[in-house]
Amino acid sequence: METTNTTQQDVASAERSKAIRIMASSMFRELTSNGYSQTHIIDFSSELLQLLTDSLRRPEDANESLAKDILS
Q1: DSSP code at position 2
Q2: How far apart are the C-alpha atoms of 44 and 28, rounded to whole Å?
Q3: H/E element holding 4?
Q4: Is 31:48 a contact under the CB 8 Å cutoff?
Q5: Which of 1, 3, 4, 67 could form a Cys-Cys staple with 59, CB 3.0–4.6 A?
Q6: Where are the domains positioned within the chain?
Q7: Residue 50 and residue 37: Cα distance in Å, rounded?
Q8: Which of 3-12, 25-34, 58-67 has the lowest mean pLDDT?
Q9: 72 in helix, strand or coil?
């Protein structure tokens, strides 16, 4: 039973990783096709990382589950 559960978690994790890569590629294409420069995209990425950092520092916020997912 534990092996099946672990396998299902591995599959779900792999699917989520693939979805993240697809979202990142789509976002990159969307930004570049709308005229955003590499510098703009770096700035955008930095803002995302800052938001994530802030949410990890304040796990009592609504983003608590996000922080738990990332840290586990």
Answers
A1: H
A2: 10
A3: helix 2-33
A4: no
A5: 67
A6: 1-36, 37-72
A7: 20
A8: 58-67
A9: coil
Beta-carbon contacts of 48 under 8 Å, excluding residues fewer than 6 positions away, are none
Tokens linked to 52: 């994530």
Question: Do residues 55 and 61 make contact, with C-beta atoms less than 8 angstroms apart?
Answer: yes
Q: How far is CA 65 from CA 2, 9, 25, 61, in A?
A: 24, 17, 25, 9
- Match 């570049």 to its residue by tokens: 32
Instruction: For residue 29, give the amino acid letter.
Output: R
- Name the amino acid, one letter, at 72: S
pTM: predicted TM-score of the whole model, two decimal places: 0.64
Q: pLDDT value at position 2?
A: 56
